[in-house]
């Protein structure tokens, strides 16, 4: 994987989690697909539609799926069922090593590093702990901490504030278009993490 790191002396580094530090996006897709099927969705969840929601809060994702498929699933009920299914699969996820190595190197230099995710706090913490990353990131910002998720800048701005770094001196690592838009809205430069292809399972 090639990471195109922009030139500059950045004072702080902000990392999305799913699809950026840990390759959980395929697992999220399978969890959504199977949960929606359990709740009665007839078509198989469209992959492009799913990936377009990257970085969006889980309840909002359900609302988007409802609008697309003409369903009326309860966002909280479906969210909770999906997250339970996802947690059961967490051990299958793999670290995205080039990004994790970069984060570890910056932390070793004494540079502030943080996680800024659109996920729920307990899911983010479970993911970090499951993959040995919890101690690396003293600052964690999740959907539970902001009123407006990505593509609004709130998540990244709060991470910068907690690190004590001006937004313009932060570099964001993101895999999703919504996250990149959020970084730009926050006045931060960014690195796009290339997607890892989805492996189909039934």
Automatic annotation (TrEMBL):
Pfam families, A to Z: Hydrolase
CDD domains named in the record: HAD_BPGM-like
Family annotation (InterPro entries): HAD-like_sf, HAD-like_SPP, HAD-SF_hydro_IA, HAD_sf, PGP-like_dom2
Superkingdom assignment: Bacteria
GO MF annotations in UniProt: sugar-phosphatase activity
Gene3D superfamilies tied to this protein: HAD superfamily/HAD-like, Putative phosphatase, domain 2
Database matches in PANTHER family: FRUCTOSE-1-PHOSPHATE PHOSPHATASE, GLYCEROL-1-PHOSPHATE PHOSPHOHYDROLASE 1-RELATED
Protein name per Swiss-Prot or TrEMBL: Beta-phosphoglucomutase
């Amino acid at each position: 994987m090639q990471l195109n790191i922009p030139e500059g002396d950045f004072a702080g580094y902000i990392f999305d989690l799913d699809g950026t530090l840990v390759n959980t996006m395929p697992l999220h897709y399978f969890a959504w697909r199977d949960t929606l099927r359990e709740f009665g969705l007839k078509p198989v969840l469209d992959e492009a539609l799913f990936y377009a929601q990257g970085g969006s809060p889980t309840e909002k994702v359900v609302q988007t799926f409802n609008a697309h498929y003409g369903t009326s699933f309860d966002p909280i009920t479906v969210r909770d069922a999906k997250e339970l299914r996802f947690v059961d699969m967490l051990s299958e996820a793999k670290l995205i090593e080039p990004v994790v190595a970069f984060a570890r190197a910056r932390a070793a230099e004494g540079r502030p590093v943080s996680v800024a995710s659109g996920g729920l706090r307990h899911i983010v913490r479970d993911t970090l702990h499951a993959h040995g990353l919890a101690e690396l990131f003293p600052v964690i910002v999740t959907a539970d901490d902001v009123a407006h998720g990505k593509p609004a800048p709130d998540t990244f701005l709060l991470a910068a504030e907690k690190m004590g770094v001006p937004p313009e001196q932060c570099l964001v690592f993101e895999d999703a278009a919504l996250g990149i838009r959020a970084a730009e809205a926050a006045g931060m430069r960014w690195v796009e993490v290339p997607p890892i292809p989805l492996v189909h399972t039934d």
